[in-house]
Structures are given as structure tokens and as C-alpha cells.
Design a protein that fits this description.
By secondary structure, the chain is of the alpha+beta class. 54% of the residues lie in helices and 6% in strands. One of its GO terms (biological process) is proteolysis.
């Protein structure tokens, strides 16, 4: 199976029906139980094997919430029966009858989690949240039954310590270690009361994480600002059209809706001339989870931190971050913090320069204000125009969502030899009308690689942000399985008949998430566990793909004006390049503030933490500029508190950015630039295909010939002394 759960529902887990050799009588009974439960699954479409074309696809057209709870319950029952078969095997533990059997176990549950993920992220509703609240602790208890199974861990440990290990392939050795380490890191070595307490904490945390996420979503859905025509001063036509469409979809035709999402908030406070409205929209967005009502997350944060600290203490760790980072590239929180502190002084120094430039403009306009957080983007845009004669809205006219998608396909063809072909509408089920699907093939051989699903637009019930996921990953150990990859965004949909235009930052995000999809699609690994990610490495590949947005081939062929079809003018491209590091202080500081606070939360005694006070005091101690806030304020920091995928690991974006900048310089220096054939082959072979079947540090050295250096990142951001 994939790595034993550290974070509930962070990815699909537990694959397939176990296979055993020469079963004894007890095993025969266990196999019969598995078969009986398996037969009952056929009546529930959420549990059924994927069917149809392309190696089978999820039955999104048959999703019914009434099927979800029984599907989860039956899949858990089957999975536990599969585990019983593995444990009951009278033969000595081997890689095949233990590790491979675990890799196969749980495929039915994995399919249910695909649908769970759609309801949780793309189609959330009060009805789903009720099921989620009920089942999250149940699922946690189920996971603990597996990770706490002493007989199962004994078999895994026996394989890990056996002479057989040295005879296995490199990938097989690594997944054996990953499996052993997942058990050992999640309480398998504990006994008695300590083991029971560990499981109880996991169960309680599952409910708290779910509540945190749902509170943020509730505030995003609750607060919508409806404007009238006389309140639109400064807003470009594209934003006005999108706001009108958003209002119409909410039954307020003739008005203009600014929703409580980043994709709506950000452009509004960048362009609106109405300072009081900018403050209102800014305050509403950054107050999510912090309104002193039933959706307030402050108490939840303290409770989560307390439980996490208690849990890792059972394993002998001083703090949560120490436990979390032991198998990451950073290895410990000190190394992670050291990297960020190398960048922090230059970042805040740049912020002070940016604020001075903005204040000068405000003073010249006799605005009679001191730059506040809701002014930053607005006056930064004025500085951009004054310093670089660059208008973000002018750039936006050349950033059409569909054209950018074509650009991504072009890059995928050049680097990965992939061809994307639209799947005929109706031939593959989708969960929402806006979702489109493409088949991915090898350009040379025509081999089917997989499918790519795209859900690009924001809507009520869809969580904010952008993300990538898989509905099936590439494996070959139990028959070849092709990839079902998905990208999800919250772009504001253009008015009817008009293209969706997005900002330069959003275009980078679009490429970023597509990088994750290419990472899924290019995999050549054999086993499911090889897809388990190292958090401070998995963002590297996607961050690197952002660099192809600025290549000449993309700019000259896909950045065309949405009305005239004319390519973006060379002089505008020159302005974009000249302003490449503009506002870098803001972007780096708002990210680093969140990442450093994440580590501070997880290296401090929770009894000393009152979230709002702690956030204020720690940021003040760091010298955080008062004209801005952290990108994810504590009460809405879903990366960290709605699960454990990024907890004590948000620094990973910066760690990965060091690799990204270093790798980008390797391409820039290659004879063929960013489309250099030799570099592209190394990119795919060592950085994308291999997934987690090799230690990431070793894989990067094979690509680059050495470890990455932080100086490339400093040069990228134009910080002092790095030119």
C-alpha cells in the first residue's frame, strides 16, 4: 500500500486484494470472508471496479451521497479482512507475502476515497460535511487498527531486517524501508496504554482537522460582497464582467459579487479605487476562521497543537516538527529554519523599499494615508506602472485560460513527448459540467499513458486554491495501471461567450499545478508506495515547470490578445522581464512568515500558545512589516491545521524553490536552453519518472551532478549581493 497513513485522507491509500502462498485452514476461512465481502460491494457504485474505456474510469455520474457511508464501512471491513489474511499466513514473512500483499490491500477503499475527495474538495455541501464529521474519527480508528496491528508490524519488521532485503531491487528495498518507517513512526513500536492513547489522539485529531477545514469553508461561503455600479471605480472590464456573472449565478442579477476567495479578493484590492471597500474585502478574507462565532478556529488550533505534541512525546520526540522532519530532505526543524533565515532579512529589506515607493506615490496623490495591508496591492500596481510602465490588466488581456492550457500541452510535448487529445464529451463521466477530460498518449509510439481531468472554475462548495490529485496512479506490479490525473483551480469564469482572463500570478499557478500532473503522468515506478511524496521535494517539480511560462516559444505562440488574436508585443514582454523581480519582497515575505510561523507553532510548548497573541508576538519578533500579513493567517492555515500533509512542512515550498532555481540555471546554461534535449531527458528520467523510488537528494545529484545551492534562489529573486 502507499505509506501507512500519517494524515487521514491526504491521498488515496491501500491497494488491491492480497495474494498469499499455500494458505492454511485459517487463511482459507479468511479468504472466504474477503470474497463474501467483496461480492457485496458490487451493489455500491462507489466501491465497484472502475469500468469503461481507458482501463476503467470513476463512475462520477453515479455518485450519490447516500452510498458514501455504507461504501466506507464495507471497504474498511474488506481491508481489515485482507490484513487478517496477511497476518494469518503461516509461512515466514517475505517481501512477496507481506510487503507486496500490503501494496495490493485496500483497492476498494482507495476507490471510495476518490469520491470522498471530490465531495470534500470540489462539491462540498452541508450534507457531506455531516458525513465527514461522523466518519473522520471512524476512519482514523480504522487506520489505527492497521498501524497498531502488532502481528502485521512484526512481519514487516522481519522483512526489513531479513537477508532477503539485499537481494531486492532498489525500488523494492526503498518501499520496504518506507513501509517499515511508516509503521514505526506511527506508533507501531508502542505498547499497552501508550499505543491505545496514540490511536485515541489520532481519532480525535481527525475530527478536529475536519472541523477546522469546514469552518474556513463556511466563512468563504458566508461572506459575499455585492456591489452596485457606482462602486466599481478602478476595476478593469474583465473583473467587472466576472463579478457580474458571479452575482447572477447567486440570484443577484444587475449587481456585482466579490466572493470571499483569493481569486476574487486579490484582483479587487489590486484595482479598486474605493479604499473603504478594499479594507472590507481584505478584512473579510483575512478574518476567515477568526470571527468569534461558531466557525472560529482559535481554540481548535490550540487543541490540535496540544494533541500533536502529546502524541509525538509518546514516541520520544521533543516536539512535533522534530518528528515530522526526520525523513524529509531538511532532516530537522533547525535546518529548515536556517534556510528561511538566510532569505528573510533580504526579503523584509525589499518590502521596506517597496513600501517607500508606494508611500511616495500616495503622498504625491495627496491621499493622506499611511500604507496599510489593504493598500499594498493597490499601490504596488501604481508603482509597477510608474517604474516599468507595466499594467497588470494589460498583461491579463493576453492570458487566456484556454490558450495557456494549449501552451502547457506544447511544453509537455517538447519535454515529455506527451500528446493531449480531448476525450469526446459524454464518453467519460464527470462530476460537474465544467470538467473536461483529455487522453494522454506518447507522441512517438502512441502508447496510452492516461487521462487528464481539468476542473478550472470556482463555485460554491468548492474549496479555495488550486491543487492536483490522482484517481489512479501508474503501477505495474499487479498488471499495468494507467494514470488518471486531475488539476483543479478556482479561476473566475468569464462572462458568457468571453474567455476567462487570469493574472500573471494565476498563470504561474496554472503551470505549477500542471507540473504535478506531469509528475503523475510520467511515473515509471512499479509499486504504489513509490508514489508517496517527500513533502519538501514534491513541490520542486511543479515549481520548476512554472519556468516554461516565460520561454520564448510559449510567449510568442500562446500569449495572444483575447479580442484581436495578436501576439503579445515584444515591448510588453520586455517590460514583464524587466519587472520580473518586482514585488518580490511582498511575495517572499508573506510566504516566509507563514512557513516560519508553522515551525514556531510546532516547536513551542502548546501550553504557552494562544494563537492570536502568539502570531502577533512571533511576527513582531521576526520584524514582520506592519504593512502586510502572512499569506495564510493562523485561523485559515489549512495546509497546517486541516490535516497533516504540510504541518511543520510548509517551509517545503522554499526548500523546493532552492532546487527549482538551481535546476532552472542548469537549463538556462544548456546549449538548447529550456528545451535542450539532453537536459530534458535527464529531467524526465531523474526528477519526474522516479517519484519516491529513490532518495530525492540522490536523484537530484544524478540530474545536476551536485547538490543544489541557495545562491541561485537569491539571484532569482534579485536580492542584494547575488547578481
Amino acid at each position: 500500500m502507499k505509506r501507512i497513513l500519517v494524515t487521514l485522507l491526504s491521498t488515496s491509500i491501500m491497494f488491491g486484494l492480497s495474494g498469499c502462498t499455500q494458505p492454511d485452514n485459517k487463511q482459507t476461512e479468511q479468504n472466504s470472508e474477503v470474497a463474501a465481502v467483496s461480492e457485496s460491494l458490487n451493489n455500491n457504485p462507489l466501491l465497484a471496479e472502475y469500468s469503461g474505456p481507458y482501463g476503467g474510469v470513476p463512475a462520477f455520474d453515479q455518485m450519490k451521497l447516500t452510498d458514501l457511508k455504507p461504501a466506507l464501512e464495507q471497504a474498511m471491513q474488506l481491508n481489515l479482512a485482507e490484513i487478517d489474511v496477511i497476518v494469518a499466513n503461516s509461512e515466514p514473512a517475505t517481501f512477496t507475502n507481506t510487503i507486496v500483499a500490503l501494496e495490493k490491500a485496500g483497492s476498494d477503499l482507495s476507490r471510495v476515497y476518490t469520491y470522498w475527495g471530490i465531495w470534500g474538495s470540489n462539491m462540498n455541501s452541508p450534507e457531506f460535511r455531516a458525513i465527514q464529521k461522523e466518519m473522520a474519527p471512524v476512519l482514523s480508528a480504522f487506520n489505527s487498527k492497521i498501524t497498531g496491528n502488532e502481528q502485521l508490524f512484526a512481519r514487516v519488521k522481519a522483512v526489513y531486517e531479513s537477508d532477503e532485503l539485499s537481494t531486492l531491487s532498489a525500488e523494492e528495498q526503498r518501499i520496504t524501508w518506507l513501509t517499515y518507517n511508516s509503521f514505526a513512526s506511527n506508533g507501531a513500536t508502542l505498547e499497552g496504554d501508550a499505543k491505545a492513547r496514540y490511536a485515541a489522539i489520532n481519532q480525535e485529531l481527525a475530527g478536529l482537522h475536519t472541523q477546522f477545514a469546514n469552518n474556513v469553508l463556511a466563512d468563504e461561503e458566508k461572506y459575499v460582497l455585492f456591489l452596485t455600479k457606482d462602486q466599481l471605480s478602478g476595476l478593469p472590464e474583465s473583473i467587472v464582467s466576472a463579478a457580474a456573472a458571479a452575482a447572477k449565478s447567486r440570484g443577484k442579477e444587475g449587481q456585482y459579487a466579490i466572493t470571499n476567495s483569493r481569486s476574487s479578493m486579490d484582483p479587487f484590492i489590486t484595482y479598486s479605487d474605493e479604499r473603504d471597500l478594499r479594507e472590507k474585502v481584505w478584512s473579510t478574507y483575512y478574518s476567515r476562521g477568526n470571527n468569534g462565532d461558531e466557525a472560529d478556529n482559535n481554540a481548535l488550533i490550540k487543541h490540535i497543537l496540544t494533541l500533536r505534541d502529546e502524541r509525538v512525546a509518546l514516541l520520544g520526540y521533543d516536539n512535533y516538527a522534530q518528528w515530522r522532519l526526520k525523513d524529509r530532505m531538511a532532516q530537522n526543524p533547525e535546518n529548515a529554519m536556517e534556510l528561511m533565515q538566510k532569505v528573510w532579512p533580504a526579503a523584509i529589506a525589499r518590502v521596506h523599499e517597496e513600501v517607500a515607493d508606494m508611500q511616495a506615490i500616495a503622498d504625491a496623490e495627496k491621499a493622506n494615508i499611511k500604507i496599510a495591508p489593504w493598500d499594498y496591492r493597490y499601490y504596488a500596481e501604481k508603482v509597477r506602472k510608474a517604474k516599468y510602465a507595466l499594467d497588470s490588466d494589460e498583461v491579463k488581456q493576453y492570458l487566456q485560460l484556454d490558450k495557456l492550457r494549449e501552451a502547457m500541452f506544447y511544453v509537455a510535448g517538447r519535454l515529455f513527448n506527451f500528446k493531449f487529445t480531448p476525450v469526446p464529451e459524454g464518453s467519460v463521466p464527470v462530476f460537474q459540467a465544467d470538467v473536461k477530460v483529455w487522453e494522454v498518449n506518447d507522441l512517438t509510439t502512441g502508447e496510452h499513458i492516461g487521462l487528464w481531468y481539468l476542473d478550472p472554475y470556482g463555485r460554491p462548495g468548492k474549496r479555495s486554491g488550486a491543487w492536483a490529485t490522482t484517481y489512479r496512479s501508474h503501477t505495474t506490479f499487479d498488471g499495468k495501471k494507467t494514470v488518471l490525473a486531475s488539476n483543479n483551480s478556482n479561476f473566475v469564469k468569464g462572462a458568457e461567450g468571453e474567455p476567462s482572463l487570469i493574472s500573471w500570478d494565476d498563470a504561474e499557478t496554472y503551470f505549477h499545478e500542471f507540473g504535478h500532473a506531469l509528475h503523475f503522468l510520467s511515473a515509471t515506478v512499479k509499486y504504489p508506495t513509490s508514489h508517496s511524496g517527500v513533502r519538501d521535494y514534491t513541490e520542486f517539480q511543479s515549481q520548476l515547470l512554472e519556468r516554461w511560462l516565460t520561454t520564448d516559444e510559449v510567449i510568442n505562440n500562446y500569449l495572444v490578445h483575447y479580442k484581436t488574436g495578436e501576439p503579445i508585443p515584444a515591448e510588453l514582454v520586455a517590460k514583464i522581464n524587466k519587472a520580473a523581480t518586482f514585488n518580490e519582497g511582498f511575495k517572499t515575505t508573506e510566504y516566509l512568515a507563514s512557513a516560519m510561523m508553522d515551525l514556531l507553532y510546532h516547536t513551542t510548548d502548546p501550553s504557552l500558545i494562544e494563537p492570536q497573541k502568539f502570531e502577533q508576538e512571533q511576527l513582531a519578533a521576526l520584524g514582520m512589516p506592519t504593512e502586510m500579513v502572512m499569506r495564510h493567517r493562523s485561523t485559515q492555515f489549512g495546509h497546517v491545521f486541516s490535516g497533516e500533509g504540510y504541518s511543520a512542512g510548509y517551509y517545503g515550498y522554499m526548500w523546493a524553490e532552492v532546487l527549482t532555481s538551481d535546476a532552472a540555471e542548469a537549463f538556462a546554461q544548456a546549449p538548447g536552453g529550456f528545451y535542450d534535449k539532453e537536459m530534458s531527458e535527464k529531467l524526465v528520467k531523474y526528477l519526474f519518472e522516479i517519484r519516491n523510488a529513490m532518495d530525492p537528494a540522490e536523484a537530484y545529484r544524478l540530474f545536476r551532478g551536485r547538490d543544489a545551492k541557495v545562491e541561485a534562489l537569491m539571484r532569482d529573486r534579485g536580492f542584494p549581493g547575488t547578481q
